Amino acid sequence: MRKFHIASDEDIKSGETSDVYYLRTKKILEAKGLASTKVVAEATVSSLPKNWHWCVICGIEEEAHLFEGLPVSVYSVREGTVVPLRDIDGLKIPVMRIEGAYAAFAHVETASVGLLCQATGVATAAARVKIAAGWKPVYAFGIRRMHPAIAPMLDRAAFIGGFDGVSGVLGAKLIGIKPSGTMPHTLILIFGNQEDAWKAFDEVIEQDIPRVALVDTFYDEKVEALMAAKLLKDKLFAVRLDTHGSRRGNFADIIREVRWELDINGFKNVKIMVSGGLNEENIGELSKAGADIFGVGTSVSNAPTVDFAIDIVEVEGKPLAKRGKLAGKKQVWRCRSCFTWKVTLANTCEVKCPRCGDVMDPVLEPLVEEGRIVKDLPKPQEIRDYVISQIKHYNITL
Ligand code: PCP
């Protein structure tokens, strides 16, 4: 009996998480002798949430495992590729292409779209928060807001988007890093006072874990910050302000006051970490006010999904697409120098950047060939580095 309302790997690969109309389509094609009909299908971003004009493609590793073993071939952009909504001619950009008999992958079309939609939303929201925070350290604290079954995926996507660490134990294992965290109010409440809790943390927790004292439980933040600094002295790495909404008032000014209080008392090295209700709109002001480190939860783990669609663009080698979509198998090109993109038919050999004249590189690369994963799937750290390098190289802004 299933304890949690979640799908297993086998459920996902066997089509148990499919929309039923794809399974009925497969049944009809098989009944009518069309099961071997070859198609080319492409995944494109139909629209981006809010005022986003680019997204960080995430979920490609899971796509590889989804199509592994099926008699199809898949081409995709590298995981972590930052893609604008449209190319230089205003065309929507395919980020993944599937080639083979439609009946061979109909049962995983739903899952394939879902793998891209949510992870890309989270990774993009994370990248936007990092840009808004001026690239200061940001940690993912948001898995508590979502179903635990997807906690590793959420943490991985936030890390790929540029976050510096994640609070989730399994997510951190998946990424290959140590989980990050400070202390909850619970610890202080159970000890009944701040100092015994801070001291206990210092006595019990491994020495390589930064000592970050939570300083908003009972008294004013600047009072508790000074108490913690005087108690832990050089061992105190930072103080965390997770001030309750009812007391938050002008949070930026509270941060300035805490900074001032620590500095005039000789604790210039103690950093200020803030968390609770942070997002790309409010984090910049808190960073300017003196916050050094951020814990971001809901605004990233509950990020809007990116609206991908998978559409057939060729049947038995003939370009064919529904209204609103561009027929024919495509390749996508990105300029080496400027963030210019161009969509062409797949048989195009070379493209020069219409904007700066530099060489453009084809970005749809083989991922799965006839059911075999042919790409060395990069580690999350490599993907994260790739994301940050693109944003800095192309000077990508919010
Ligand atoms: C929460 C916890 C997370 C924060 C808030 C995520 O604080 O510390 O870091 O917040 P967000 O989802 O609004 O971004 P509490 O609920 O006070 O929990 P705790 O006492 O465990 O820190």
UniProtKB/TrEMBL annotation:
Q: Which UniProt keywords apply?
A: Glycosyltransferase, Ligase, Phosphoprotein, Pyridine nucleotide biosynthesis, Transferase
Quickly give the catalysed reaction. Answer: 5-phospho-alpha-D-ribose 1-diphosphate + nicotinate + ATP + H2O = nicotinate beta-D-ribonucleotide + ADP + phosphate + diphosphate
- Could you give a GO molecular-function term held by this entry? nicotinate phosphoribosyltransferase activity
GO biological process, alphabetically ordered = NAD+ biosynthetic process
The Quinolinate phosphoribosyl transferase C-terminal domain sits at 122-311
Pfam families linked to this entry:
QRPTase_C, QRPTase_N
EC no. given is 6.3.4.21
Query: Hey, which pathway is this one from?
Result: Cofactor biosynthesis; NAD(+) biosynthesis; nicotinate D-ribonucleotide from nicotinate: step 1/1
- Domain (Quinolinate phosphoribosyl transferase N-terminal) spans 19-119
Top-level class of the enzyme under EC nomenclature: ligase
Against NCBIfam families, the record matches this protein to:
PRK08662.1
Q: What is this protein called?
A: nicotinate phosphoribosyltransferase
Q: Which organism is it from?
A: Thermoproteota archaeon
Kindly list the organism's lineage: Archaea, Thermoproteota
